[in-house]
Design goal:
It comes from Paenibacillus residui. This protein is α/β, with parallel strands linked by helices. The protein is built from eleven helices and 15 strands. It folds into two domains: about 140 residues, Rossmann fold, CATH 3.40.50; about 170 residues, 2-Layer Sandwich (Dihydrodipicolinate Reductase, domain 2), CATH 3.30.360. It binds nicotinamide-adenine-dinucleotide.
Length: about 325
């Protein structure tokens, strides 16, 4: 079957989705909507599709099978609920929403409508990440005993849209936006829900009311600990995940590669020639639509990530550890 697709939000990540759609035969992009009419017009023109300023108007007129939601975080819920209500399958960008309560509203709307919704946790589609997961599951280096995840980016670059620095619109700063990638990676690679969270968050950024960095200690339900260190202050960019096993180590640099320890040194691991992550993400959604199976990044899974992000802020405010096992959504 072929699917008519619309994009809601014509910002930075929208073009990545539109480019990826060009590599998936079943997908036919037809229109995009952005409240900024000039932006919508320019992007739509470059991909030969129609432009709208009101996404509801677009969905009503275009009757798409799939809507890709690439809006600021505070609008994820309203757009996902609206699209589900109109019978559209949804690819919803991460994080699923800005609170667990909003995730629950999305889950209810989607389950009630019978459509499929995949949350864009792209980490699951990078070849080096997939290889790292295989390495863990194979037991080749023994048992996984801990994960160290470190990420530095210049988060306060002038080109970043203002809403990213407004807690009401973004849900939080770097730990919501990029932290959700790290939490997802740790949750997925560790193979078990996060059970405990302790954090210390830093609010020293030059813009807005969101945090600019923080340290997070996590432990999953299997007792595997992980540390996330993230900063958005000026510095040297870094994005590394260190996996420590009983019989060796691995270094994962998402977007670059995977290395494993051999005789005291890191050696590169050969990777398969998979399709680009955004293409694989579409294939996952299509499989889910056509088979009825939940996608890898299901709503229930993605809600867990939002729950951990919320716990990060709560732990910092209370200066105490947060235990998550009691609050998990059933089923
Ligand atoms: N998966 C990834 O690797 C990845 C990478 C970047 C961004 N993202 C996610 O994608 C989403 C969008 O991020 P971005 O960097 O593209 O942001 P952006 O600010 O560049 O784009 C958002 C767009 O939405 C538009 N918009 C705002 N309100 C609207 C409304 N009511 N109706 C229609 N359009 C509206 C804005 O004008 C803007 O063009 C976020 O959830 C972000 O976390 C994911």
């Amino acid at each position: 079957m072929n699917y008519r697709v619309v994009v809601i939000g014509g910002g930075a990540i929208a073009s990545r989705h539109l480019e990826a759609m060009g590599q998936v035969r079943q997908l036919e992009p037809v229109a995009l909507a952005d409240i900024d009419g000039e932006k919508a017009g320019q992007l739509a023109q470059s991909f030969g599709i129609r432009a709208y300023t009101d996404y509801r108007d677009m969905v009503k007129k275009e009757r798409p099978h799939i809507a890709i939601v690439t809006l600021p975080h505070f609008l994820h819920k309203e757009a996902a609920v609206y699209c589900a209500g109109e019978g559209c399958h949804v690819l919803l960008e991460k994080p699923m929403a800005i609170s667990v309560g909003e995730c629950d509203e999305i889950i209810e709307a989607v389950r009630g409508s019978g459509v499929k919704l995949l949350v864009g946790h792209t980490q699951h589609y990078f070849p080096e990440n997939v290889k790292a997961k295989e390495l863990i599951d194979s037991g080749e280096l023994g048992r996984l005993v801990m994960i160290n995840d470190i990420r530095h980016v210049h988060y306060y670059q002038p080109s970043r849209p203002a809403w990213f620095f407004d807690k009401a619109k973004a849900g939080g700063g770097i730990l919501t936006n990029l932290g959700s990638h790290s939490i997802d990676k740790i949750r997925w690679l560790g193979g078990s829900p996060i059970a405990r969270v302790r954090s210390s968050v830093s609010y020293c950024g030059s813009r807005g009311d969101v945090e600019g960095g923080g340290l997070i200690f996590l432990e999953n339900a299997e007792g595997i600990p992980a540390v996330i260190s993230q900063s958005g202050y000026a510095g040297v960019p870094r994005n590394e995940t260190e996996l420590v096993f009983t019989g060796g180590m691995a270094k994962l640099v998402t977007g670059q590669g995977l290395w494993i320890s051999q005789d005291g040194e890191f050696v590169p691991v050969a990777l398969g020639r998979e399709e680009p992550p955004f293409v694989l993400q579409f294939r996952d959604l299509i499989t889910s639509i056509e088979t009825g199976k939940e996608p890898g990044c299901s709503m229930t899974y993605s809600r867990e990530i939002v729950e951990v992000v919320e716990a990060v802020y709560r732990s910092h405010e209370r200066r105490s550890e947060i235990f998550l096992s009691q609050t998990r959504e059933p089923g």
